[in-house]
User: Which sequence fits this backbone?
C-alpha cells in the first residue's frame, strides 16, 4: 500500500462483502479431476475474462479449496456457466467436499477431461497458466482451449446482494402474426378461490377467444408455471360430477399459486352445445406461445397434462420444461 494511504482504516470483511454484493455476477461451477480421476467441482462467481489474445480467464479459489488442490494436480479445469433454473445446483456445489452433488447429474469429459455439466449455458475448458497469491484466495489464470455454448437462449443465474436472481435473455424477433389470431391487452382483476388473477392479454382466433390470466410477478420468476385450460359450462361453472373440468382447473390454479408465479391460458370456444365438454380439444401452440411471449416469458414450466404442447412452443423459441406424466 502506498505510504500516502496508510493512515486510512482497514475495511472490515463484512463491509467489503456487503459493498461487493451490489456488484451482480454470473454463477459458475468450476470442475476438474482429482488424483483418482473422480470429478470435483465448486461454485464460483469470482470468474472473469482476462484476455482475448491469448484467450485467458481467471478464477479465484479459497486457499483451502479441495477443487483448487485438484486443479493444481490435474493442471486443467472447466468453467460451467449456470442457467437461471440451476440455483439448487449452485447451492449443492457450494458445500465443501460436496461429492453427492454429482449423483444423478449428467456430465461428460471435455477437452481437458474436466467435467462439462449438461445444460450449462456455456462450458470453457482451460489449462492452468499461472497461480498467483491473492490474500485469502489463490488466483488461477487459465488458457481457454475449447468452448461450448448452449443452443437454447435461456436466462442466466445471477448472484446479487447475497441471493440468487435472474435476467431474462433478449427477446427473439417477433414471429409474423397471422390474420387468424390477434392479441390485444385486456387488463382486469378476477377473484378466484386461489387468490386474484390478472387478465392481461387476449387472443382471438377463429371460433375461440383465449385469455392469459396471470398470478404473481412473472419477471421475477426464472421459469413460471403455465397451464392451459378450455372452458366447460358443465364442469367449470355448474360443477357437474360427471365432468373433471372443474377439478382440473382447480389443480392448474393450485400449481400456479404453489410455484409463486404463472399463467393460466383460458380458452372459450364458440359454437356447439354449451354442455359439450372440451377437455380433449387440443390447444393451439401458436396462440398459447403468442400470449406467453406477449407477457415477456421466455422460459416456462408446463404441466404434465399439457406436455404435448412442448414441441410447438419450443419451435417458437421458448425454453420449455415439461413435467413428466
Assistant:
Amino acid at each position: 500500500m502506498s505510504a500516502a494511504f496508510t493512515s486510512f482504516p482497514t475495511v472490515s470483511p463484512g463491509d467489503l462483502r456487503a459493498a461487493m454484493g451490489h456488484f451482480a455476477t454470473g454463477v459458475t461451477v468450476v470442475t476438474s479431476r482429482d488424483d483418482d480421476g473422480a470429478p470435483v467441482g465448486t461454485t464460483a462467481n469470482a470468474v472473469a475474462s482476462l484476455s482475448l489474445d491469448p484467450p485467458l480467464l481467471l478464477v479465484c479459489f479459497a486457499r483451502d479449496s479441495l477443487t483448487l488442490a485438484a486443479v493444481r494436480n490435474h493442471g486443467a479445469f472447466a468453467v460451467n456457466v449456470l442457467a437461471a433454473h440451476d440455483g439448487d445446483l449452485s447451492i449443492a456445489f457450494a458445500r465443501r467436499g460436496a461429492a453427492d452433488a454429482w449423483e444423478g447429474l449428467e456430465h461428460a469429459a471435455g477437452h481437458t477431461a474436466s467435467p462439462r455439466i449438461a445444460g450449462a449455458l456455456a462450458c470453457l475448458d482451460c489449462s492452468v497458466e499461472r497461480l498467483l497469491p491473492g490474500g485469502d484466495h489463490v488466483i488461477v489464470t487459465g488458457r481457454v482451449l475449447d468452448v461450448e455454448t448452449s443452443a437454447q437462449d435461456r436466462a442466466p443465474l445471477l448472484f446479487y446482494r447475497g441471493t440468487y436472481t435472474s435476467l431474462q435473455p433478449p427477446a427473439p424477433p417477433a414471429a409474423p402474426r397471422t390474420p387468424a389470431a390477434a392479441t390485444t391487452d385486456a387488463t382486469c382483476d378476477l377473484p378466484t378461490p386461489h387468490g386474484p388473477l390478472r387478465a392481461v392479454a387476449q387472443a382471438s382466433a377463429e371460433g375461440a377467444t383465449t385469455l392469459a390470466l396471470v398470478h404473481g410477478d412473472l419477471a421475477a420468476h426464472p421459469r413460471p408455471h403455465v397451464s392451459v385450460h378450455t372452458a366447460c359450462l358443465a364442469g367449470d361453472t355448474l360443477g357437474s360430477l360427471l365432468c373433471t373440468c372443474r377439478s382440473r382447473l382447480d389443480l392448474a390454479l393450485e400449481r400456479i399459486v404453489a410455484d409463486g408465479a404463472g399463467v393460466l391460458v383460458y380458452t372459450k370456444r364458440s359454437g356447439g352445445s354449451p354442455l359439450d365438454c372440451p377437455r380433449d380439444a387440443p390447444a393451439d401452440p401458436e396462440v398459447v406461445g403468442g400470449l406467453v411471449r406477449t407477457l415477456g416469458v421466455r422460459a416456462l414450466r408446463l404441466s404434465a397434462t399439457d406436455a404435448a404442447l412442448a414441441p410447438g412452443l419450443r419451435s417458437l423459441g421458448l425454453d420449455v420444461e415439461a413435467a413428466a406424466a
